[in-house]
Specification:
The complex is a heterotrimer of chains A (201), B (289) and C (483). Chain A contains eight helices and four strands. In chain A, strand 2 and strand 3 form a beta hairpin. With 201 residues, chain A is an alpha+beta fold. In chain C, helix 4 packs antiparallel against helix 5, helix 7 packs antiparallel against helix 11 and helix 14 runs antiparallel to helix 15. Chain C is globular and about 95 Å long. The chains are: A alpha+beta (201), B alpha+beta (289), C mainly alpha (483).
Chain lengths: 201, 289, 483
């Protein structure tokens, strides 16, 4: 509705005022409900947490869909699992953390032709000291992941690290992992570097 | 709000949050993506377009093609199929191997009755034991991973579009409307330059019932002098020029066609994997011969 | 003409509304007059673009009027030619009136407005010549954007100066919204122009920045500038106080906090966290729209003010369009829905509801109220305003709603791969025909608006001319009589 034309040049024209009435409760409740729905929606579909490689429709990085390598070891999947389980200490680039986790890149343990010693390390873990690339690492404590890893996981992860960051060694096979597991039996005691050196490669 | 300063502070906080989320974070995560070597494909991906196609991208931009066409394929899900490539010579052994995983298949009388796709599996690792068992029985099987969705079913792509596909685009023209079909992989489905030029000149001559406007200003109508030009469009019927004239594409049309033919993203990537049982496509954006 | 008191006095003592309006005259003529022109012209380009769908071969030989050039011309003229200048003009007037202070350096603001209009003209010519950028809602090339930015900064600085010189210290909700808008636009504009046109980012980050900009422009800035006018005119035109101050604060906060996260479409080739975060933003951006409803209902409750097609009608229609547009945006966050509506006309319909239905209608209300006061005479016939109102309402509804419904139908066909694409494209023609009819009505309405606005300006200039003529002839007569 147009205002009264007679007031156009009045010296006092009231400007609107606002009353300090409170925000209605239903609005606050709606806000909270929508916030909750939004959080649930993001949790379900958002590819936790700000992962740049997860695209809808995948809820996680689609490692389960990577094609396997011809010889049975899925290095791509191994990389994903390495980054999930091992990179926390050994770093994504295999450089390790000084005093805490030895490097894997260029490590003679990783590059050894035979995988007998290497397979035992993720299965039952390491303690004490070990010498890698001429450097001694003391006070280690790597927890074994044997129970949480399937044979295929071990095959994939170890095949990956044996061919990453300049390493070059043959893939680990499922038979080798099975053999080591049989030999380990119920053992849960971590290996020390010296103990491993006594085994054959 | 007592003062302008408070309002500005509130606005600053709100806007800097979304700036961090949608400007800074994409740049940090996606702004410097290196080329990757996809599995099963020769060469790196993505590859910069050849010069004429780069110019064509600018023609695409200047004509505003992005307002009708999108360049982003969607995907609903992924399906893993165990495919039997070779049933082998030892029929009973193969059937016995299959029986371990699927009783129904093992009941089939002969091997030739086996379907090519044996089974739909949940993911690749669950197919690996079956592959090994079949290998031990003398048969060869592979797992085929393919993307699913209406866009894929329309042959607009083999997988969804991801950030990597646009790493070498000068101006990214993703588009939000499909008045015309999606063009992300038009170089894979319509790789012929001639088809693209014909389509630009007279869309309804190659696509019956097409609603796309003809782009005749991208072409020149010339009198045929001594002999028809080798570049002249092969038009028939109502679209053909009058006798004695020919339709020749301008450099813009040629560049645009080269750009369209360079649009393909049919390479499996980490973010959107798929396998193909046929020979892998070369990872190049060069126009097809 | 009254003699002006020295500037130092205006900072302390409140000016009368008449004086304030008089000080705003020149800048608002520049801003509103230019805006009305660009709006009418944008409608023409919009219609030309739509014609391509009805008769594809119409512009086959004319590159300038082809869809890919006419469509960005329409969108750029609409947003940069009309929406931003109109919003800015209304904001300036609101800051002056609510601060009870005359506008600071009106001539400088007018210069800024003319610089802005020059930028729009340069941008329009560039788009028609093919220099379009390809980013939606940011089509103008960088040289035009620089001119626009300079014009805006000039106007914004003096708007802020006006605000600091205000006589009335306490702030009314509209002032918060205007100040937030003055801050928001330069930041998103400069970021987008720098990162897309001067130091371009690589790859899909360009799309992310462009979408962030478009979301902030359409879903936040239009909301800030439009609701500033709504919160002023609802109480002003009904004669009742705004209900309430805290609701308005709630709207401001939620609009800024949540609306800024909208913009990234669900189908984008970006990691899931970005598209889903934007989806959450879309859901939450519905809250400010919901909050405006009680403001409207409670403020207007009991006010026996009939609409009669005047500014109050425009404002109310604007509020409901804002609610509907925000609802449609929130719905697209649901995966089942955006699977169908992505890539269809649905998004365009939703944007049209927001821009035409909410923002332009609210600006029309404000301009129809402000211009007669700025001129100091009631020169606007309510009949013509009413004609514009009904053309605007029916035109907007016919323009936007068939696109929304048609988009859903189109999407349902798109997700069925058995339906060939040509059939999908053909099926959109029927809703598009209705939409073009609505667009034609809007075109007529916009020309009525142009006629109204220039009617006011011309009548003012005529009256000034008449006064000058009368004065001059009177002096001449006395000079002739004396000897």
């Amino acid at each position: 509705m147009n205002a009264d034309p007679k007031n156009l040049n009045a010296t006092t024209e009231a400007e609107p005022v606002s009353e300090p009435t409170a925000v209605p409760m239903w609005l606050i409740v709606t806000l909270l409900v929508l916030l909750f729905l939004g959080a649930w929606y993001y949790d379900a579909r958002g590819g936790w947490l700000f992962n740049a490689k997860v695209y809808t429709p995948y809820a996680h990085a689609p490692e389960a869909f990577y094609p396997p390598a011809p010889d049975g070891a899925n290095r791509k999947r191994g990389q994903v699992m390495f980054e999930k389980h091992c990179a926390v200490c050994h770093n994504n680039d295999g450089a390790g953390k000084p005093g805490q986790a030895p490097p894997l890149a260029g490590s003679e343990w990783v590059n050894a032709k035979g995988a007998n010693r290497l397979i035992r390390i993720p299965l039952v873990g390491l303690t004490g000291s070990i010498t890698v690339k001429g450097q001694k690492y003391d006070g280690l404590s790597m927890v074994g992941l044997g129970g949480g890893l399937t044979d295929d996981d071990v095959v994939d992860i170890l095949s990956y690290i044996r061919n990453a960051w300049g390493n070059s060694a043959p893939d680990v096979t499922a038979d080798q992992v099975k053999k080591v597991r049989t030999e380990l039996g119920n053992r849960s005691q971590q290996y020390t570097g010296d103990e491993l050196l006594k085994l054959e490669e | 709000m007592k003062s302008a300063a408070t309002v500005f502070l509130a606005a600053f906080l709100a806007l800097s949050a979304s700036w961090a989320g949608f400007v800074l974070a994409p740049q940090l995560q996606l702004g410097r993506q290196p080329q990757v070597k996809p599995s099963g494909v020769e060469g790196l991906y993505p590859v910069a377009r050849p010069g004429l196609a780069q110019q064509g991208a600018q023609v695409y931009r200047s004509l505003g093609c992005v307002h009708c066409h999108s360049q982003s394929v969607r995907q609903d899900g992924t399906i893993c199929e165990l495919v039997l490539l070779d049933a082998g010579t030892n029929g009973p052994a193969t059937l016995a191997a299959l029986a371990q995983f699927d009783r129904e298949l093992a009941k089939l009388p002969t091997l030739t009755a086996l379907p090519k796709v044996i089974k739909i599996v949940r993911d690749v690792p669950s197919a690996v034991p079956m592959i090994k068992a079949l290998k031990a029985a003398g048969a060869t099987a592979e797992v085929k991973v393919s993307a699913q969705g209406p866009d894929i079913a329309r042959s607009w792509g083999l997988r969804r579009s991801v950030a990597h596909d646009f790493a070498y685009d000068e101006t990214v023209q993703i588009g939000t409307r499909r008045s015309g079909p999606d063009l992300a992989n038009v170089g894979m489905t319509k790789p012929a330059l001639d088809w693209q030029l014909l389509h630009l000149y007279a869309p309804s001559s190659v696509v019956t019932g097409s609603t796309m406007p003809p782009y005749r200003f991208l072409f020149e109508k010339r009198m045929i002098t001594r002999a028809p030009s080798p570049d002249a469009l092969q038009l028939t019927g109502e679209f053909a020029p009058p006798a004695g004239y020919e339709i020749v594409p301008t450099p813009e049309a040629r560049a645009l066609a080269a750009y369209l033919v360079s649009l393909r993203s049919d390479v499996p990537l980490d973010e959107a994997p798929f396998t193909s049982l046929t020979a892998p496509a070369p990872a190049t954006n060069a126009p097809a011969k | 003409m009254m003699a002006r008191p020295p500037a130092s006095m205006t900072a302390c003592s409140p000016s009368s509304p008449g004086r304030i309006d008089a000080s705003c005259r020149l800048p608002l003529f520049a801003l509103f007059g230019g805006a009305a022109l660009w709006l009418a012209l944008s409608s023409v380009f919009g219609l030309i673009a739509s014609l391509t769908f009805h008769k594809p071969a119409m512009f086959a030989d004319c590159a300038i009027l082809s869809y890919g050039r006419a469509f960005p011309a329409w969108s750029s003229l609409l947003v940069y030619g009309f929406c931003i200048p109109a919003g800015l003009g209304v904001g300036l007037w609101l800051l002056a009136r609510l601060g009870r202070v005359e506008l600071a350096k009106p001539w400088l603001i007018t210069v800024g407005a003319e610089i802005w209009h020059t930028g729009v003209l340069v941008g329009l010519i560039a788009i028609l010549a093919g220099e379009t950028t390809g980013y939606e809602w940011l089509e103008m090339p960088r040289y035009a954007m620089v001119i626009l930015f300079l014009g805006f900064v000039l106007m914004a600085i003096w708007a802020f100066v006006t605000h600091t010189q205000r006589a009335e210290q306490s702030l009314y909700p509209s002032q918060w919204l205007v100040l937030a808008a003055l801050f928001w636009l330069p930041w998103i504009l400069s970021t987008a122009v720098l990162l897309l046109q001067f130091f371009p980012v690589r790859g899909v980050v360009q799309a992310a920045v462009a979408w962030w900009f478009a979301g902030n422009l359409l879903n936040v800035w239009l909301g800030l500038a439009g609701l500033a006018a709504t919160f002023y005119f609802l109480p002003k035109l009904t004669g009742r106080p705004l209900q309430s101050q805290y609701l308005a604060l709630f709207v401001l906060w939620t609009l800024m906090l949540f609306g800024t996260w909208t913009g990234i479409p669900a189908h984008a080739p970006l990691p899931a966290w970005m598209t889903e975060l934007s989806g959450v933003g879309n859901i939450l951006a519905f809250i400010p729209a919901v909050a405006v409803i009680p403001i409207l209902v409670l403020t207007c409750r009991g006010a026996k003010v009939p609409c009669k097609g005047g500014p109050l009608c425009f404002t109310k229609f604007g509020v409901w369009s804002f609610v509907l547009a925000s609802l449609l945006l929130a719905l697209t966050a649901c995966p089942l829905i955006h699977r169908v509506t992505d890539f269809t006309w649905f998004g365009q319909g939703q944007n049209l509801l927001r821009i035409y239905g909410f923002f332009t209608m609210t600006m029309f209300a404000a301009i129809y109220y402000i211009l007669p006061r700025v001129v100091g005479a009631e020169v606007l016939s309510p009949g013509r305003v009413k004609v514009h109102f009904w053309l605007g309402v029916i035109g907007t509804l016919l323009f936007a709603l068939p696109l929304v419904a048609g988009g859903v139908m189109q999407g349902l066909k798109l997700v069925d791969p058995a339906i060939p694409f040509v059939d999908v494209a053909k099926s959109t023609l029927m809703p598009f025909r209705m939409s073009t009819l609505g667009e034609t009505l809007l075109l007529i309405g916009n020309f009525v608006f142009l006629f109204n606005v220039f009617g006011v300006i011309v009548s003012y200039l005529r009256s000034v001319g008449k006064t000058v003529y009368v004065d001059a002839t009177a002096q001449l007569e006395t000079a002739v009589v004396k000897p």
